[in-house]
Amino acid sequence: MLELININKNYNPGSVNELCLFKDFNLTVKDGEFVSVVGSNGSGKTSMLNIICGSIAVDSGRILIHGEDITKQKDYIRQRRIGRVYQDPSKGTCPSMTILENMSIAENKGKPYNLGRGVNKAKLETYREMLRPLNLGLEDKMGVQVGSLSGGQRQALALLMATMTPIDFLILDEHTAALDPKTAEIIMELTDQVVKEKKVTTIMVTHNLRYAVEYGNRLIMMHEGKAILDKAGEEKKSINTEEIMGIFNKISVECGN
Ligand SMILES: Nc1ncnc2c1ncn2[C@@H]1O[C@H](COP(=O)(O)OP(=O)(O)OP(=O)(O)O)[C@@H](O)[C@H]1O
């Protein structure tokens, strides 16, 4: 279980650009939940993910994973149990390295290996077997630089790499936003498959309201640092895209956006 308890976060305190984003923000994510998070630009979605991953510090409040307080834990320590896929695939993969090197690094996440020891040619066949079900032909490109792959191939690889080691949480930060509609569908199907297979607790930020409705078992809408809508289980199943779009538009109008 992940718990964000009374989180407070001010950006640029004391300056004209001061922004009080989170004020006593609370969120609990139960094990096995697949939470879709939607919300307008600037509502705090990525900041929330960054707080969970430790890329930004909170001013006050506590972050617990399975009851353990990780608020002060460094981000690189947290990464051992969190897999993250970004909108920009170059953040989740190393473009100048080959698929083999990238997968080796992903498999050795958290281990004290340098790259020389980390690149594991003995694992070549294992990696190929992991890539084959993606149906993207990546298993025949082990020596190819990741930067030369298509966006979809890279996001599929990033997803696989994020879940190669045992993790408690998978964090998806608009991971289909830079893909064409057809490729985005493929990556969403793959995401759903991976989440179900690995039974990993997942938080997915997306601007695609249909994906938020169709995938996952909980839907949260953020607005100005608050979760203004939170539907899970049967309630979530009964929501349709038009309804969510209606709520989204109503808020935008009220805020003059
Ligand atoms: N490091 C930072 N320093 C100062 N302000 C920040 C920082 N990160 C985010 N913000 C501000 O906090 C607010 C929330 O940003 P955040 O990126 O979390 O929103 P978001 O919901 O993910 O938006 P988007 O949908 O555009 O990605 C914005 O007003 C943003 O400008």
TrEMBL record:
Cellular-component GO terms for this entry: plasma membrane
Every ABC transporter domain range: 2-249
Cross-referenced Gene3D superfamilies: P-loop containing nucleotide triphosphate hydrolases
Keywords carried by this UniProt record: ATP-binding, Cell membrane, Membrane, Nucleotide-binding, Transport
InterPro entries: AAA+_ATPase, ABC_transporter-like_ATP-bd, ABC_transporter-like_CS, ABC_transporter_ATP-bind, P-loop_NTPase
Recorded topology in the membrane: Peripheral membrane protein
Gene Ontology molecular function: ATP binding; ATP hydrolysis activity
Major location category of this protein: membrane
Compartmental location: Cell membrane
Protein name: ATP-binding cassette domain-containing protein
Taxonomic lineage: Bacteria, Bacillati, Bacillota, Clostridia, Lachnospirales
